[in-house]
Amino acid sequence: MSGSNSSDASFARASRPPSEPAAEPLGLSVHGLPAAGEAMRAQRTRSGRWQMMAVLLVCAAPVIASYFTYYVIRPEGRRNFGELVQPLRPLPELTARTLGGEAVALDALKGQWLLVSVAGGRCDAACEEHLYLQRQLRESLGREKDRLDWVWLINDAAEPPAALAPAMAQAQVLRVDALALAGWLEPAAGQRLEDHLYLVDPMGNWMLRMPASLDKASASKAKRDLDRLLRAASSWDTAGRPEAAPQPR
């Protein structure tokens, strides 16, 4: 009988419908959060870029204003003496050397206006004329003269004459590779690199080339260019630079 009871129990269990799975709580899945996170990151990136651009614009505003004032907002018929360089050419990453042989990064000259001449170390009569004009133009600026450095870039291995030592003590005199220099500055058509004076703004951009005809008689026209640019950018550059180290004689 026990066997019959066991069989009946087994049959009863087999005849019951299978039990349904227990109900599970409804899961709440939140979709789209990764996409939202990506969007927030992209928004922060865009915001950071705009902030960086705003900072750059603030830094560049004085030079933009000075160029705009100088070349756009001016009385009818007034012309600048120097030739504007377009586009501006930034100081290259070159290593120059002092006359004593010390290595100097050329872009270390940034921070002030630069009036630049180029000539070989022997410095012929035209070179001496340019050095004289650079000094006189700087001195003619009066109390603004500390905002302008005058620079002689020597493009060969020749040693300057000892007679030029007093002038060199007041200037920034650096020796630069001629080919590298020619990749930055450029003369007017039909002229040599040594025929001009070049004006570089405090951000290190070569932006103006004085005519090859510049001499003592026309120096007042070059001074007007300098006056207007320095006045338009009065809050842009830093006045004064540590005195140049005395050059070996």
Account of the protein in words:
The chain is an alpha/beta fold and 249 residues long. It has a single domain, classed as Glutaredoxin (3-Layer(aba) Sandwich), CATH 3.40.30. It has 6 helices and 8 strands; from the N terminus they run H-H-E-E-E-E-H-E-H-E-H-E-E-H. It has helices at residues 2-15, 33-71, 125-140, 165-170, 178-182, 219-232, and strands at 83-90, 95-97, 103-105, 113-119, 148-154, 172-175, 197-200, 205-209. It is globular, with a radius of gyration of 37 Å.
Structure summary:
The protein is an alpha/beta fold. It is built from six helices and eight strands, in the order ααββββαβαβαββα.
Mean pLDDT: 79
CATH class reads Alpha Beta
Tell me the radius of gyration.
Answer: 37 Å
Can you identify the CATH superfamily? Glutaredoxin
The biggest sheet amounts to:
6 strands, mixed
Taken in chain order, the helices and strands follow as HHEEEEHEHEHEEH
* Global outline: globular
Secondary structure blueprint with pairings:
Elements: H1 2-15, H2 33-71, E1 83-90, E2 95-97, E3 103-105, E4 113-119, H3 125-140, E5 148-154, H4 165-170, E6 172-175, H5 178-182, E7 197-200, E8 205-209, H6 219-232
Parallel strand pairs: 4-5, 5-6
Antiparallel strand pairs: 1-8, 2-3, 4-7, 7-8
Helix pairs in contact: 2-6
Question: Any descriptors?
Answer:
single chain, 249 residues, alpha/beta, 6-stranded mixed beta sheet, disordered C terminus
